């Protein structure tokens, strides 16, 4: 204390004004980021000794080729032959060095060890900015809790309770198609099956998720169908990468970024939010009241499971979280299954002999008709008969093998780790390594589709559509860790597709219903653009 009683801090401290400090700190952080993430990896990278293709220029990426459906299979094979089953690829530019592995043992290990290998933050941020925070983006305990509740909804008994919806919607679409064909003079009609099957996919998953009819097959201008179509289409639109970066980083900013992409996203998300929240409130009211709630849709099941006495209060989900889970089911479960059905119809149209044999087989099981009074038990019996048809089964597996709805996935290592391999890898310096050593932060691509068409595993005819291969598979196929008959189409491990059995059931019922009554031929000059996700 000085004599005057005022506080004495000794000699005046040098001060920097805020106006100067903020840009200095920001500049320092940017410089550090550039040195660590851009400059250093070009000259020194933990994966430098792993062989791989050269970078096509500083801003060049190997991913364009690997993701381009016209050359994807060929390029994966070419790189694998040159560099082995695990190789280094350049992501967005020369400083972004990633790994890609087609090694079945490595893939199985990565997909099992979910605490070490997680989805990279940009992937999670991107997904959450569109469908909210849910199974796709959550990790650790939060994911476990969400998955436990969701797994319950996909249990055997619940799945069976969805059969009436699937049969009813499949038959509704088939009747529409038959009426289109009947109106034609020669019993043939040309129309866009994709538009219909996408609507069917939404109606089915919407009804089993929410317990209300979506009606997009009936109504041409259906709000939910238009909203999801816009939501998916807007993601294909290009905008400045910096705007995308900020919009994904800070989703709250999206409504204020004046671009068509964010305006559409904001509007679509608001529609889904209002629609879902109203339903949640209504269902909660029914559950809380003395009214008996007969519904077994996902939303009702989640609401019930969430308030079960076994679920600790702190682990319960908020309405927003419940809505995000349902939104995830609608987004992940509609177009994926619709695509798989469409690819099957496409392969049938290209292989009339396969289609004829399928039609013969399908006729051994009666088709469902809405005029028949058919209880749930009878539907379960009918489904069991459809599910046991071997040729239909082989066709579905073969379609999911050649054209899986998900092209590939990606994980990042959260800690340094050693990944086991099917056989030692040869490094750039000629040494061999029996494991793949990775550093924390390493991104690893998992090419699901390329694994399904790997000729070293599936044989020389792996690129051909041959359902008969499923009678006798090569021994090597059993090495693949895929959840669905070793196929990687539904991923694997604790984060494998939760809707796999549901999708399988929907595909079988829908295909049985439509191919029993109609034959498909591809129109002339048909052009299919196969995207990759
Ligand atoms: C033919 C149809 C389908 C295919 C090919 C497919 C494919 C996949 C794949 C490959 C994954 C794993 C992604 C990864 O490893 O990063 C996945 C995850 C997931 N799928 Fe599917 N899916 C289909 C249908 C469905 C359906 C019908 C639903 C829901 C009703 C669904 C919901 C999900 C969810 C929620 C996840 C994330 C699981 C988690 O992270 O815990 N999918 N799907």
Fold and architecture overview:
Belongs to the cytochrome P450 family. Its cofactor is heme. GO terms for molecular function: heme binding; iron ion binding; monooxygenase activity; oxidoreductase activity, acting on paired donors, with incorporation or reduction of molecular oxygen. This is Related to Cytochrome P450. The chain is an alpha+beta fold and 533 residues long. It has a domain at 132-408 and 447-517: Cytochrome p450 (Orthogonal Bundle). 52% of the residues lie in helices and 7% in strands. The chain has helices at residues 18-43, 63-67, 72-83, 104-112, 121-131, 140-153, 156-161, 163-183, 193-210, 223-234, 241-249, 260-288, 298-306, 319-350, 352-362, 376-387, 390-402, 448-452, 455-458, 500-517; strands spanning 86-90, 97-101, 117-118, 409-413, 417-426, 432-438, 443-446. A 5-stranded mixed β-sheet has the order 1-2-7-4-3. Strand 5 (417-426) and strand 6 (432-438) form a beta hairpin. Helix 8 (163-183) packs parallel to helix 20 and helix 10 packs across helix 12. The chain binds protoporphyrin IX containing FE. Residues 135-136, 147, 205, 328-329, 332-333, 336-337, 340, 404-406, 409, 448, 489-491, 495-499, 502-503 line the site of protoporphyrin IX containing FE.
């Amino acid at each position: 204390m000085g004599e005057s009683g005022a506080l004495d801090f000794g000699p005046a401290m040098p001060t920097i004004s805020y106006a100067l400090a903020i840009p200095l700190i920001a500049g320092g952080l940017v410089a550090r980021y550039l040195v660590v993430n851009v400059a250093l990896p070009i000259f020194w990278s933990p994966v430098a000794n792993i062989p791989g293709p050269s970078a096509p220029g500083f801003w060049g990426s190997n991913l364009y080729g690997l993701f381009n459906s016209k050359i994807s299979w060929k390029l994966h094979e070419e790189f694998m032959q040159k560099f082995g089953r695990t190789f280094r690829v350049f992501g967005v530019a020369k400083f972004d060095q990633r790994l890609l592995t087609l090694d079945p043992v490595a893939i199985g290990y990565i997909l099992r060890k979910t605490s070490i290998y997680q989805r990279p933050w940009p992937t999670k941020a991107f997904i959450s900015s569109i469908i909210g925070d849910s199974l796709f983006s959550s990790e650790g305990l939060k994911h476990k809790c969400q998955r436990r509740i969701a797994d319950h909804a996909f249990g055997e008994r619940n799945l069976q309770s969805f059969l009436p919806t699937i049969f009813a919607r499949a038959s509704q679409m088939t009747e529409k198609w038959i009426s289109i064909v009947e109106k034609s003079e020669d019993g043939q009609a040309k129309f866009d099956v994709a538009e219909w099957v996408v609507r069917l996919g939404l109606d089915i998953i919407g009804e089993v998720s929410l317990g209300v009819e979506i009606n997009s097959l009936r109504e041409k201008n259906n709000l939910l169908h238009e909203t999801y179509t816009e939501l998916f289409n807007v993601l294909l639109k290009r905008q400045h990468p910096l705007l995308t970066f900020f919009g994904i980083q800070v989703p709250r900013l999206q409504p204020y970024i004046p671009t068509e992409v964010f305006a559409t996203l904001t509007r679509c998300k608001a529609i889904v939010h209002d629609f879902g929240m109203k339903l949640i409130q209504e269902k909660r009211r029914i559950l809380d009241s003395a009214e008996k709630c007969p519904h077994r849709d996902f939303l009702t099941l989640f609401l019930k499971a969430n308030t079960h006495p076994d679920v600790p209060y702190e682990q319960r989900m908020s309405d927003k979280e419940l809505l995000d889970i349902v939104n995830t089911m609608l987004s992940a479960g509609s177009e994926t299954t619709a695509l798989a059905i469409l690819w099957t119809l496409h392969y049938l149209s290209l292989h009339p002999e396969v289609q004829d044999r399928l039609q013969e087989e399908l006729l051994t099981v009666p088709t469902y008709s809405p005029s028949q009074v058919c209880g749930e038990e009878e539907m379960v019996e009918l489904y069991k008969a459809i599910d046991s048809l071997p040729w239909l089964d082989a066709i579905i597996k073969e379609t999911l093998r050649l054209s899986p709805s998900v092209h590939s996935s990606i994980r990042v290592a959260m800690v340094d780790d050693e990944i086991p391999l099917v056989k030692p890898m040869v490094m750039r310096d000629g040494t061999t390594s029996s494991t793949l050593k990775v550093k924390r932060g390493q991104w690893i691509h998992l090419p699901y589709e390329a694994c399904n068409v790997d000729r070293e595993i599936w044989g020389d005819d792996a690129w051909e559509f041959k359902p008969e291969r499923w009678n006798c598979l090569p021994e090597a196929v059993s090495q693949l860790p895929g959840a669905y008959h070793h196929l990687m189409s539904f991923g694997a491990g604790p984060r494998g597709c939760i809707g796999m059995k549901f999708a399988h059931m929907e595909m079988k019922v829908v295909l049985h219903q439509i191919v029993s009554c109609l034959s498909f031929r591809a129109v002339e000059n048909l052009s299919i653009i196969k995207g990759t996700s």
